[in-house]
Fold:
Amino acid sequence: MSDTVMHLGSGKVRELYALDADRLLLVASDRISTFDVVLPTEIPDKGRVLTGLSAFWFGQTGALVQNHLLALREDGRSTECRRLEMLPIECVVRGYLAGSGWKDYLASGEVCGHRLPAGLVESQQLPEPIFTPATKAQTGHDENIDRAAGAALVGEERYDEVERLSLELYRSVSERAAALGIILADTKLEFGVDEEGRLVLADEAFTPDSSRFWPADEYRSGGPQPSFDKQFVRDYCESLGWDKTYPGPELPEDVVAGTRARYVEAFERLTGIAFDDYLASPEVVLA
Ligand code: PZK
Structure:
C-alpha cells in the first residue's frame, strides 16, 4: 500500500502534500489571516468555502485554459491536483485601483509600468483591466514588477501568454460576478507548465483569499471598500487597538459566526449552489 503522504509545504492558511510523482494534495484549513497575521481562532468551513469556490471557477473557465484540478475530496477542503512546474511570478489582474496598485499609482502615476490617467481616486475602476505581475516573495511581501522584469523571469513568449490568459480569465469571471451584483476588483492567478510545455491554471482561483470581491450595491469610489469576507474581523481587531504583530487576538463567537456567514454567502451568491449541497457532495460545483 502506497499511502505515505509527504508534506511539501505550508502557506499561511493551507498545506501542500505530495500524493505521488504526478499528483499533489492542496488542503485549505479554516485559519484566517488579517493584517498579515494568522489569528488563533478559526472560521468553521472557511477552507471548504474557498476550496469549493476555486473548484467551481476551474469548472467554469475550463474552456479558456486547462487547470490543475484532478478531483475534489469528500471532506470538501482537499483538492487533488496535477503536479506542475510553477512559474515564478504571481499573475495579478486589476480592474479597480486598490491595495498595492493604489499605493504605486499614488507614488508614481504607474502600476507595473502601466501609465494611468491622472486624477484617479482610490477604488476607482480603471479604463481597462491591467496585468500587474508580482514576484513570489518567500517571506514578506510580493513585489510588483513591470513587463521587462516579468519577461526576464519567465521569457517574453510565456509572459505574453500569461498576460493574455490572465486578462481573459479576469474578464470572464468579472462579467459573471457583475451580473450577480459583485465587483471583482482584482485577482491573483498562478500558472504552472505541464510536461508538454502547456500552461495550466493552478493554486486557488477567484476566491476571497486570492481576489477582492466588493458588493456592487455598497461600492463608492474615493476610499477603501469594506472587505466582503473579512470586514467583521478587521473591525473587531481595530476596536481592540491591537498593534498587528503576532500573536493576533482571539475572535469572539459573534465575529466568528458573522464571518462564516459572509463566506457562505459569497459561495452561494457566486455559485448559485446551496452550501449544504456542497458539504453533502463537493463535486456538485463541477457539474
Ligand atoms: C504549488 N504552491 C503554493 C505553498 C500550499 C500551497 N499544481 C501544483 N504543482 C506544483 N506546485 C504547486 C502546485 C499548485 N497549486 C503550489 N507551491 C507549489 C503553496 C504552500 C502550501 F497549500
